[in-house]
Each structure stands twice: as C-alpha cells, then as structure tokens.
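Hi Prof. W.,

I finally got the Exosortase A prediction working! I wasn't sure whether to trim anything, so I left the full sequence exactly as given:
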Amino acid sequence: MQPEALWMVPGAMLRWQGLSEAWRGAIVRLLGVALLLLVLFARDWSEMVLHWWNISTYNHILLVPLILAWLVWQRRSELFKLEPVVWWPGLILLTGTAFVWLLGAFSGLNLARQAGAVGMAAASVPLFAGPQVAKGLLFPLLYMVFLVPCGEELVTALQMITAKITISLVHASDIPAHIDGVFIDTPVGLFEVAEACSGVKFLIAMIAFGALMANVCFLSWTRRAALLAACIIVPILANGVRAWGTIYAAQIIGVERAAGIDHIIYGWVFFGIVIAVIIGLAWRFFDRPVDDTFIDAQAIVEDSVLSRMASLRIGSGKALMAFLAITLGAQGWAYAATRLSADLPRTVALPKVAGWTRVDYQPKVWWEPRASGAGHRLLGSYADRAGRRVDVFFALYAAQAEGQEAGGFGQGALTPGTDWAWQAPAAFEGAHGERLLAAGRISRVALTWYRTGDLLTGSNARLKLAVMSDRLALRERTTMLLIVSAEEGAGGPADRALRDFMQAAGPVDAWMDRIGRVN
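And this is what came out:
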C-alpha cells in the first residue's frame, strides 16, 4: 500500500469516529436501506440506468447521481450539527411512494414504477434520519426527481410548437412553403419536424440544469422563477430557429448538406451557445454568496414545528420491519394482480355493417397497427357503393401487463420503424384521432378507442386509470382496442368516410362488445 493510502485510511477512520453516535447509526441505516431498495426494486433501477445510458434523450441523467452527491457534500458541515432520529411519520411518505410504484406496476406504466422507486429512496431519509435532516437535504431530495427518465410525453406537443415557429420564420424569410401538421413543403423538398427534432432532449436537460443553477446561484425566489422560465422558453424558441436554419440552408446548399450541418453544428454548437447565453445573462444577477453554507442548521434546530415533529420517534428495529412490510407488501400485491387473466372467446370476427361490404385489405402503403400480447387480432376492410374504403383493426387482451399493453409505447396506429410517420392530430369526438403520412404523399386518418368493463375512451390515460382500479380490486377484465382508419382520396375525404362508417356501425361500445363477445 502506498504511503498516501496509509495516511488516508486513518484520517477517514478519525472522521468517522468523530461523528456522533446518532449520526453513525443514521448513516448505517440509510446505506442499508438504500441497498435493500436497490435489491428489492432492481428491475426498476436497472431499467432507469439502461435508459440513461442507451437513450440520448436521457444521457444527461448520468450526471445527476454525481450532482446529488455534490449537493449533499456541500451541506455536510451544517448537517452534522443536526440530530438524526428515526421518525415514524416517514412511514406515511414511504407508503405513498410505494403506492405510486404499485399503480405503475398495475398499469404497466414504467414512469410511475420508476417515480415510485425513486420516491421510496427519498422517503427513507425522513424515515431513518428525521424531519430536521430531511429539511437540511430538502433540495437534494427534490432534485432526485431528475433521476426519473421522463419527457417523451411532450414530444407530440413540442413537434407542433416547433413546426409553427419554423413555418413563421420560413415565411418571414420569403421562402414559399406550405405546412401540413409537422410537414413543411418547400421548393427544394419536404421537411418533417420529426420526434428527434422536437427539442425534448435539450428541453428536459435544460430544466434539470436550470433547477440546479437556480438553487446554487440564487436566493431570491423571483430570480429563480425567472431563470427556470428562461430554461423552458429559450430552448423551445431556439429549437424553432434551429429547424428554420436547416430549411433556409437547404434552399442554398441542398437538403443533404443542410441535414449534415443541422446534426453537427446546430445540434451541438448552437445549443451550446444557447446555454452560454443563459448563463451569461443570469451571471450578473447571482445573489448567493460564494461561501454560503446552503442551509442554516441553527435555524432548523430553532424551528419549533420541526422540533415537535422530531419528537414523533420510533425504534429503528420497528421502523425497519415496517419498511419491509410496506415494500414487500407492495410487491406481493403487484405480483398477485399481474397474474390475473380474463377468459377469452375461442374466435372473434368483424361483424357486418349496413351499407358496407367486406373487401380484401389492399392499402396503397402497407399499414398494420401493433398490438403486442393481444389474444386476438383482426385487420380487415370495408367498402361502400361509392368506392370509399375503411380499414378496421381490432385487438382483444386477456390482461394488461408488461409486454401486452393496449396503450403502450410503440403500440397502436403508428408502428415505429415503418413507412408511416405522425403528421398531426385529428379531431373526432370520443376517439384519439391522428393523421399519418407515408412516402410524403399518402395520408391516413386513424381513430382509436379503448374499452374495458363499462369504459369506452380514446384516452390512454383513462385506460391506465381503469386498469389500475381493476388491479387494486384484483378484478379480471378483458381490454379491447379498436382502430378505424381510412386513406385520404380513397373515394373522398377520410374524415367523412369514417363518420359515415361509424354511424352505420352503431354505438362504438356495443360494436366492440359484439366483436369481443363480451356479455
């Protein structure tokens, strides 16, 4: 062993022995509980780490654990002036976060599962260290939310916003262009504001950066709010400018060269400049002193409310037993619920529709929705006397679980990796409507309904809530997915053909029940 290492080990031991007995116990408890949570919820933590590593949208999260460690380190001198206790109301927080995890497990919503796993880790601090220590670590505990890989839910809205900003700038540049949803047609070609161009990657990274900067550099809540607003608004506007710059450059140097410039220059240099501009503008308004301790231990100790709260103590052994009961109970309930499976009919078939005849399925560009894990799938076409064609896809599920979710990512009308791309939302009462485009010229309108029990909805969120309710009650129910679609120009406007077909088919809920043979 090198001399430096020999010197460091005794120093570390001295610092450990210099801590109070209460703090040594609290650190051991927190490390032990953290290890237990990593083992019990290994699947959720491993999935999060894989997202951080493999998905570029979440690469910035790889820095968050280091940031959290730094935030705690900055507060250490003041934290050690506080007395950690085992606090029984922390079990309420733990139960709440475990319930969030449970709902995610019931519905197959990974976001809820992962948020619950992170929440349980945060809740263990007030439980095993007490409210005063939790107050001292309040910002790091709240900052743990950025460990959860989320933000993809904003892609569609950001695509539309970026497209509107871009077309406004394109017109202001005297470039003749036409916009249809997220597609912009210009003299040199058709441009798509794709998911990768939505700017969500930079936006969520900027929000995480802005929250950190607001806490570290500012004391004024007004200045913090202003910085966070800038970290939301500026990236969205900048992304519109980036997309416009690509289209403008393409008019001069060609589409292929402009796309290369977009990914290399605008993708890195441009947004690097945006970050530098935000920091530069905020610099002169920094109001936190350089030597600030971030927390005031004396003020926390003198807080009478926190003192009364800290008196609600429990033995560490009892707290650990309750911790295990809550976490293992949640996992046991989830295991029992996810094993539920309703009986399915042996066969299903698309019914007759008055005024419409079953015909061979012959789309101009192959379109087939995805329904992974469904027990039955049907895909067929109907035509009327005017030559209008409507395509119908139906899927019947015995249960909703991992790998068999009617509203899961990549499921439904738009299958990733195919010729079809999302174009714009489509309005249709009670359904989730969307316009799709293939080969830059074939447009399709798709309407989606979900049905389980008495619920009929076009909302994936409402379906998730219904599934959660069934799982909580350990109730077995089938889930049905119906997608009715039509190509534009196949005998008339797709919207009109779909409305006429659905009117002829009758009430959607009864029609789906008849196909799925639900009594």
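The CA atoms of residues 222 and 228 lie 10 Å apart. Does that look reasonable to you?

Thanks,
D.
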